[in-house]
Amino acid sequence: MNTKKLGLGILDTIVKVVFIIIVAMLIIKYAKVAYNYGYHIFNQTAVSSGTGREVTVTISEGDSVGQIADKLAEVGLITDKFLFKLQEMFSEYHGMEQPGTYTLSTAMTPEEMLSIMSGGIKNGEESSDKDGALEEGAAEETEVTEETQETEEVGNSEESNGN
């Protein structure tokens, strides 16, 4: 009887240890998966480097993010549909995808693709290259004006020192 209890006790201990090992292995495995997704949501990479391969994709009216992810995965623009959905959810272009036909490249990150598919709209405001060019031109004009004023001030102070 004592031997039977001892055998059952050892068997019970072995089962508990095996269970704990299996649980620990599952936790480690899924922690790695979670870390990988978390890392790639914010550190986006393109499918290929260099110039990549250009692909035309058509987004229809009412396409969900899942359907867009399916289309992008079919043509090789993304490698993980679920990751793309998460990246879209956490991007500034969430829910702003517009229907249309787009030429995208495998060298683009998901954020760049979303920017194009949203029509360049950021947080409800339209951004365009013209606005950026005007801002740059205005900044250059300000710098030239400041340089001209400094030159005039130096010239005026030299004239007053010479008199």
Automatic annotation (TrEMBL):
Top-level taxon of the source organism: Bacteria
Q: Where are the transmembrane segments?
A: 6-28
Region Disordered, annotated ranges = 119-163
Answer whether the UniProt record assigns the keyword Amino-acid biosynthesis to this protein.
no
Share an example GO biological-process annotation for this protein: cell wall organization
Q: Where is the composition biased (Basic and acidic residues)?
A: 123-133
Record key words, sorted: Cell membrane, Cell wall biogenesis/degradation, Lyase, Membrane, Transmembrane, Transmembrane helix
Q: Quote the protein name from its UniProt record.
A: Uncharacterized protein
Organism field:
Butyrivibrio hungatei
